[in-house]
Specification:
membrane, signal, five-stranded antiparallel β-sheet, alpha+beta, 219 residues, 9 strands, Lipoma HMGIC fusion partner-like 2 protein, transmembrane helix, two-stranded parallel sheet
């Protein structure tokens, strides 16, 4: 018999797991990792182009044209080997693995309200382990990302001063900070999964299961 068990801690962990997976996915797909110098002083821009803002993502880019109030975005790399540097290629691999694991956990977290075990293992412990592993992949990706700032693509956007771990005339965009925040939240979710496990297996929950209730809500 399926018992739907909902507690404050398990529900909070579920919501956090979904949010962190979504945040990392949005950050990865965004072109707002690096924000180029808006005055275009390091480029051969015309006067009308100097107010345009260019942003660069891991595999895509955007140009915000101030006069037309238009944003043009698209991938600069048509295949994996055209990504700006080998470091960014490694970043893509690590982030994709991390996001995939977080997405799996996000799906499992929804079903955790009804199924509390996988192959006789606690679903919360399994998900917490997957979140910890995902967090390690995300850290590796984020550590390698700044090493690619010396690539020709970044130099074109950020000037000749750009080099590994030195952003030059650019500034870091919200996507980079979102990825960092999501990584921190990933480890918090991994630790909080233990609390979700405790909340759904305490004596009060077991008493209600023995009473034959199929929907169990515990604060």
């Amino acid at each position: 018999m399926c018992h739907v068990i909902v507690t404050c801690r398990s529900m909070l962990w579920t919501l956090m797991s979904i949010v962190v997976a979504f945040a990392e996915l949005v950050a990865f797909m965004s072109a707002e990792w690096l924000v180029g110098n808006p005055d275009g002083s390091e480029f051969n821009f015309t006067a009308s182009q100097r107010s345009d803002q260019r942003t660069l993502g891991i595999y895509n880019r955007c140009i915000k044209m101030a006069q037309q109030k238009v944003v043009q975005c698209g991938p600069y790399a048509t295949d994996f080997m055209e990504i700006a540097s080998g470091f960014w290629q490694a970043t893509v691999i690590f982030l994709v693995i991390g996001i995939f694991l977080l997405s799996v956990v996000g799906i499992l977290s929804v079903f955790s309200m009804c199924f509390q075990s996988i192959l006789k293992k606690s679903i919360f412990n399994v998900c917490g382990l997957l979140q910890g592993i995902a967090g390690l992949f995300l850290i590796l990706g984020l550590m390698l990302y700044p090493a690619g700032w010396g690539s020709k693509k970044v130099v074109d956007y950020c000037g000749q001063d750009a080099s590994p771990y030195k952003v030059g005339l650019c500034s870091l965009g919200w996507a980079f900070y979102t990825a960092i925040g999501g990584t921190v939240l990933t480890f918090l979710c991994a630790m909080f999964s233990a609390q979700a496990e405790i909340a759904t297996s305490n004596d009060k929950v077991q008493d209600e299961i023995e009473e034959g209730r199929s929907l169990i809500c515990v604060l």
